[in-house]
Structure formats: structure tokens, C-alpha cells
């Protein structure tokens, strides 16, 4: 009997077809927007970079919510905390690398 309950809980943690379709459509839209902006030379170069970065962040969020089911399941809180820690580490490494590359006067 416990096997049946654990199997039911496992299948509930997966998304529905509707959830996958919504995620897929959002992913396509978030991919097409920067493509259209770049191919049509819309906005200034700085604005294009900002649009690409925003769409990439939104794409990341869509992937986590609709396909990775980050907010679902019994460990959702721990998953969010692990993601936050990973993002802090990632941003620290990226910011530190940019800072070192920008202000490293020894190599010049």
C-alpha cells in the first residue's frame, strides 16, 4: 500500500501537459523577442544587450518553474535556498572575474 502512495506522490510532482505547453510557448516567445530585436536593428546597442539579458533571466525562470518544478514537492523550500546560494556564488565569481579583468593593471 505504501508503494502506491509513494508512486502517486511521485506522479503528482510532475507537471501537467498544460504546464509543459505554457512553458514551451513562453520559452519560444522569450527566444523570438531578442532575435527580432537584433535582426531588425531595433533600439541602441546598450538597449539590445539589456533586452537580451532580461529575456535570458526570464527564460531561466520559465525553465525552473515549468520544467524543473522548482516550487513543487516536499523539498521546495530547500530547493529555493540551494538555488539562491548557487546564484550568489555564481554572481560573486562573475563579478569578481569582471572586476579583476577590468582593474588588473599589472598585465598592462
Automatic annotation (TrEMBL):
Chief place where the protein resides: membrane
Membrane association type: Multi-pass membrane protein
Sorted UniProt keywords: Cell membrane, Electron transport, Membrane, Oxidoreductase, Transmembrane, Transmembrane helix, Transport
Magnesium is among the record's keywords: no
NCBIfam families xref list: CyoD (TIGR02847)
Family under the similarity heading: Belongs to the cytochrome c oxidase bacterial subunit 4 family.
Entry protein name: Cytochrome o ubiquinol oxidase subunit IV
Gene behind the chain: cyoD
Amino acid at each position: 500500500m505504501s508503494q502506491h502512495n509513494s508512486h502517486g506522490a511521485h506522479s503528482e510532482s510532475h507537471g501537467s501537459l498544460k504546464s509543459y505547453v505554457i512553458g514551451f510557448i513562453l520559452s519560444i516567445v522569450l527566444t523570438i523577442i531578442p532575435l527580432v530585436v537584433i535582426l531588425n536593428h531595433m533600439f541602441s546597442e546598450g538597449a539590445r544587450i539589456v533586452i537580451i539579458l532580461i529575456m535570458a533571466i526570464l527564460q531561466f525562470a520559465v525553465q525552473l518553474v515549468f520544467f524543473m518544478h522548482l516550487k513543487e514537492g516536499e523539498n521546495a523550500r530547500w530547493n529555493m535556498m540551494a538555488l539562491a546560494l548557487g546564484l550568489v556564488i555564481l554572481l560573486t565569481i562573475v563579478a569578481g572575474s569582471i572586476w579583476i579583468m577590468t582593474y588588473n593593471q599589472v598585465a598592462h
